[in-house]
Amino acid sequence: MAETLYQEKAYLDSVAHYAELVPRVGDDEQSSLVFFAQARGLLFAGNSKEAAIRLGDVTSLWPGTEGSWRAQLLLLNQVVLEDRENKGMEALPILFEIASKSTCREVREEATFKHLLLDNVQQANLRSIAECEDFLVQFGQGRYRSHVETLLSEVLPRVIQDLIAAEDYLNALVLVEKHRQRLLAGTTNPAFLLDLSAAFRRLGLLEKSANVYQYMLDAYQGNPAKEPFYLPWVQVLKEQGNGRLAIEYADRYLSCYPSGGDCQTLRLLKVKILHDEGRDKEAAKILTSGEMSRGLEADLLAGEVFWMLKRPDKVEAFLGRALADVQARQQHPEAVIFLAESLFQLKQWRRSLALYEELLSDATFSDQARYRSAQILLIQGQKVEGLNFLRILVEKGQYPQWRKMAATTLLSEQAGEL
């Protein structure tokens, strides 16, 4: 009856009924529990001073009993509340003692829970995570299970981020593998999952990175929070060599978020994938659709695509714009050679010669640039200069192909003089 009244929040009535039980108790265990229950009732009735005195009496009169341990737990609640600055640190060793020594499973469970809760408040780390895991093994069916599950879901991302920041990738990976389902649950911050997947990607763990993105895209169906996952997911698919699926998800994004912030980047990725797969005609359609925004990266890619399609006019249109700045030309010599060759084919001698001259100092393209410069000079009637370029190439050229072509042209020009 006394405990029923307490459960019904009739606290003072429960205190009176427990007082009636005092003459009937027979041993220390029973005495400690009855006097603890009276003090507990007073506490929840609002008489905290009297309750604290009686709880202290229980701990001193019947040490080591269940009532004593329960009294200490209630007293420690007040200690923690009053010790906000130190986050209840002084309670930790007492809680550990109760959890270790009490013979009552319910008391051990409560003490262990409060200990690991305070421990995680102090500093969430590998040890505190292990304590939560141990708790779920020991008290998996107890009343604090859901609280510990929630605690783990809250602290795991923080601990994993700290491990990654410290470059402790092995322990971070172990935690992710062990708690994968918990981390991928809807309660986890999407920003953390993006960071986690990016970390896996940097480590070359593309499959694990892809798994997180795939799960989140499926789990966030109809949720705006899924939008940021498309771009990195497509990037990982591209890196894995899965161009078909990468294009499929890029198209899904473009369809679902036509004004999304990642539209330009995803269109560019589509073009890159198509180009890498030799599907340059499809890539060209995107580049000329009017949907692509102008930019250096897009123009450079377009120049390469149209070079493969043997469209020097289009190469000139895109690369002429992209390489107008001398710094851009210095950074992208491979694009300069495409533009120079296209202008050569279009018989724009002056513009192409200027670009070839810039490439004379480039280790990769100097031979080609010298040979083309010689051709242009000969076409323009500057025979002495043109032959000079050919002689230098024959004597000092790096690549047999261009040295041979230079020697053949040189012999032809000299034969024409006879």
Quick recap:
This protein has helices spanning 2-7, 11-21, 28-45, 48-61, 66-82, 91-101, 105-122, 126-138, 145-165, 169-178, 180-183, 190-202, 206-219, 227-239, 243-256, 263-276, 280-287, 296-308, 312-322, 326-331, 333-345, 349-358, 366-379, 383-396, 400-417. By secondary structure, it is mostly helical.
Query: Kindly, what is the distance between the CA atoms of the first and last residues, rounded to a whole number of angstroms?
Result: 128 Å
User: Tally the helices: what do you get?
Assistant: 25
Give the overall average pLDDT.
Answer: 87
Gyration radius from CA atoms, angstroms: 38 Å
User: Would you report the number of β strands?
Assistant: 0
Beta strand %: under 5%
State the order of secondary-structure elements, H for helix, E for strand.
HHHHHHHHHHHHHHHHHHHHHHHHH
Largest sheet: none
In which range does the helix fraction lie? over 70%
Extract low-pLDDT stretches: none
Helix/strand/pairing category: mainly alpha
Shape: rod-shaped
What does this structure look like?
It is a single chain. This protein has 418 residues and is mainly α. It has 25 helices and no strands. The chain has helices at residues 2-7, 11-21, 28-45, 48-61, 66-82, 91-101, 105-122, 126-138, 145-165, 169-178, 180-183, 190-202, 206-219, 227-239, 243-256, 263-276, 280-287, 296-308, 312-322, 326-331, 333-345, 349-358, 366-379, 383-396, 400-417.
Architecture blueprint of SSEs:
Elements: H1 2-7, H2 11-21, H3 28-45, H4 48-61, H5 66-82, H6 91-101, H7 105-122, H8 126-138, H9 145-165, H10 169-178, H11 180-183, H12 190-202, H13 206-219, H14 227-239, H15 243-256, H16 263-276, H17 280-287, H18 296-308, H19 312-322, H20 326-331, H21 333-345, H22 349-358, H23 366-379, H24 383-396, H25 400-417
Helix pairs in contact: 2-3, 3-4, 3-5, 4-5, 5-6, 6-7, 7-8, 8-9, 9-10, 9-12, 12-13, 13-14, 14-15, 14-16, 15-16, 16-17, 16-18, 17-18, 18-19, 18-21, 19-21, 21-22, 22-23, 23-24, 24-25
